[in-house]
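TASK: fixed-backbone design
INPUT:
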């Protein structure tokens, strides 16, 4: 069996040793080299041709972001970012995920029993990503910026939009949400990310989107022109109340502590199922790139309730896992490339759309 070859890039010798110990304990993974900074990493990539890199976000001689941008432009390679769980770490990691990193892990805390518990799985998954210049998985260049696009009449029709995503979702969500109008239908999003990272991601999206973007807070009313991102951590994002003409007021966000569902908290399935109760057919469900099956069953429940459901297609997905499962079980009404999903959401939520 051929092992997946990994290059570990970190300025801390102890962190390089820890990461190597975790990965070398797996029968299908092998750390073939180390680098203490991007300059050493550049030469190591030429000499060793690794399948995957683990990359520290902050290093001497060149920042991890600058190195990642050059790598994705010149030699696209799957990268797992290794970040500290701090606001600064979250900000840098969010940018890294936008420009080409496949996923991220957080550095272990003092005394943590299973340091880098999911690192091996993420490296294994990254090794299966085929990077191509200009593809959704590599070197995409600058992120999208909000654009009003062609002049068109738009007014929200009372539907709620619920979106779920995981690996590759930072870029996918950026591509979708930046195309929505300023007064778009209320949008609730569950993206699998660590705490603090979702805050950085929300703040960055708020600068890029025409609509207002923020982390969801408990009790926040779902209003047009607002996009609510589920906070990473130990709470599920749900929608409560009743949408549509029968509702007594706007539905609201609810943050509820609970065990992981499908291995995740927050879970896409939890969000989608709550939207079924709150909105029934007055909703649009969207499932984007990600590993696993979180969201598939919830999206099927949305479709069965009469909601419109969209799934990202294989060609534009970094990981065609979650959308694939949803499509195969009949949860997806229409499967579309990423570049068309934002426009489709706008059309489905526009009461002035006559098409």
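OUTPUT:
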């Amino acid at each position: 069996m051929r092992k997946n070859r990994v290059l570990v890039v970190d300025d801390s010798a102890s962190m390089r040793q820890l990461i190597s110990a975790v990965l070398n304990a797996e029968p299908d993974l092998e750390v073939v080299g180390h680098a203490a900074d991007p300059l050493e990493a550049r030469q190591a990539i030429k000499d060793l041709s690794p399948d995957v890199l683990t990359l520290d976000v902050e290093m001497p001689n060149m920042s991890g972001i600058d190195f990642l941008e050059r790598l994705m432009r010149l030699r696209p390679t799957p990268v797992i970012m290794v970040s500290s769980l701090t606001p600064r770490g979250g900000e840098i990691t969010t940018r890294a995920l936008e420009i080409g990193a496949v996923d991220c892990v957080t550095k272990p805390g003092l005394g943590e029993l299973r340091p880098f518990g999911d690192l091996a799985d993420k490296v294994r998954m990254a090794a299966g990503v085929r990077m191509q210049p200009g593809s959704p998985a590599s070197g995409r260049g600058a992120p999208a910026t909000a654009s009003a696009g062609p002049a068109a009449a738009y007014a929200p029709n009372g539907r709620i939009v619920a979106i779920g995503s995981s690996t590759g979702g930072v870029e996918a969500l950026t591509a979708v949400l930046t195309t929505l109008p300023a007064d778009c239908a209320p949008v609730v999003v569950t993206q699998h990310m660590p705490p603090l990272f979702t805050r950085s991601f929300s703040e960055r999206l708020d600068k890029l989107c025409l609509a207002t973007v923020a982390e969801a807070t408990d009790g926040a009313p779902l209003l047009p022109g607002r996009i609510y991102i589920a906070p990473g951590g130990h709470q599920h994002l749900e929608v409560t109340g009743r949408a549509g003409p029968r509702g007594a007021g706007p539905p609201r966000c609810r943050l509820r502590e609970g065990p992981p569902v499908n291995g995740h908290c927050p879970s896409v399935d939890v969000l989608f199922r709550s939207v079924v109760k709150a909105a029934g057919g007055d909703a649009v469900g969207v499932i984007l790139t990600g590993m696993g099956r979180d969201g598939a069953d919830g999206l099927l429940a949305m479709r069965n309730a009469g909601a419109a459901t969209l799934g990202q297609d294989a060609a534009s997905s970094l990981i065609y896992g979650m959308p694939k499962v949803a499509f195969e079980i009949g949860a997806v009404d229409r499967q579309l490339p990423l570049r068309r999903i934002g426009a489709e959401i706008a059309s489905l939520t526009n009461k002035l759309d006559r098409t």
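COMMENT: The first strand starts at residue 4 and ends at 9.
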